């Protein structure tokens, strides 16, 4: 069975996300783009963001043509002010409730440990870890209000074992792995599930740019 046929069969099953709301950060490329399409394909109403306005508008138009319910706005997830604005927009769009938060945004600068500058360290940690930590804090009231919240972090195998992707990138992903464990226990009482996906190398623009 072809992959497209399998996806269509699964989406046509009784399992559905109709009525559910989701925020996917960095949803215009790579893994984030695929996640948006899957969630929308299963019937969820999806909100996403990107730093690139032209790219975002292009994707929104394509999704509309596919019959997907997807909206979005421009946001640099590494900016605290823009993260706060994003969650305000999501709260308004979904009437104060959010079922699913997919923390997908991430970047990398791959080089030997001794060659990293302070600025590069801060860029990697703020984009990969600080942003998702803060977004969880901001989204917590919305997830709790939904009565059935779910957080999914997109981590990496690099956060578990050494794969040559750079020590700072690996450290940021390892921090995400531990944050997942903590929140899964701490926020269970609020009916918020917390999980983490740790992919191997995936053919996305991030990987292509590291070659």
Describe it:
The chain has 211 residues and is of the alpha/beta class. It has one domain: Rossmann fold. The chain has a six-stranded parallel β-sheet with strand order 3-2-1-4-5-6, sandwiched between helices. Strand 2, helix 3 and strand 3 form a beta-alpha-beta unit. The chain is globular and about 50 Å long. It starts with a helix and ends with a helix. The model has no long low-confidence stretch (mean pLDDT 91).
Features:
Rossmann fold; 49% helix; alpha/beta; six-stranded parallel beta sheet; 211 residues
CATH superfamily: NAD(P)-binding Rossmann-like Domain
- Fraction of residues in helix: 40-55%
- Which fold name corresponds to the CATH topology? Rossmann fold
Helix and strand pattern: HEHEHEHEHEHEH
The level-1 CATH class: Alpha Beta
Total number of strands? 6
Name the beta content range.
15-25%
Main sheet overview: 6 strands, parallel
Domain count, please report it: 1
Number of helices: 7
Give the name of the CATH architecture. Answer: 3-Layer(aba) Sandwich
Q: What structural class do you assign from the helix and strand content?
A: alpha/beta
- Whole-number radius of gyration? 17 Å
- Overall body shape: globular
pLDDT < 50 runs, ≥5 residues: none
Q: Overall pLDDT, averaged?
A: 91
